[in-house]
């Protein structure tokens, strides 16, 4: 079946032209789907921002908690002091 023209009879059988019957409903369906897609992308973006922020906090926690004690070096991988080589 081909595409329905604006001035063709509506396929629902109402006898009205398609533009005065179901065309507006079909157009609203497309808009609702687009809105859902955009909202989903916004939510994904917010989640990604949260994850990146959390990862940034984790990396800053591995910094040395102050000046090194004599003969020690800070190990960011382990999060504690090691004997200096």
From TrEMBL:
Ranges in a coiled coil: none
Domain of life: Bacteria
Stored InterPro entries: SEC_C_motif (IPR004027)
Compositional bias segments (type: Basic and acidic residues): 75-85
Keywords on record: Membrane, Transmembrane, Transmembrane helix
Tagged with keyword Acyltransferase: no
Region (Disordered): 61-85
Transmembrane spans: 37-55
Name of protein: Preprotein translocase subunit SecA
Lineage: Bacteria, Pseudomonadati, Bacteroidota, Cytophagia, Cytophagales
């Amino acid at each position: 079946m081909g595409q329905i023209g604006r001035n063709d009879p509506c396929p629902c059988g109402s006898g009205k032209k398609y533009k005065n019957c179901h065309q507006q409903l079909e157009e609203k369906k497309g808009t609702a789907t687009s809105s859902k897609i955009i909202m989903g992308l916004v939510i994904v973006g917010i989640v990604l921002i949260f994850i990146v922020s959390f990862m940034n906090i984790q990396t800053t926690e591995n910094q040395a908690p102050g000046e090194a004690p004599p003969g020690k070096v800070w190990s960011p991988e382990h999060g504690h002091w090691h004997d200096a080589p």
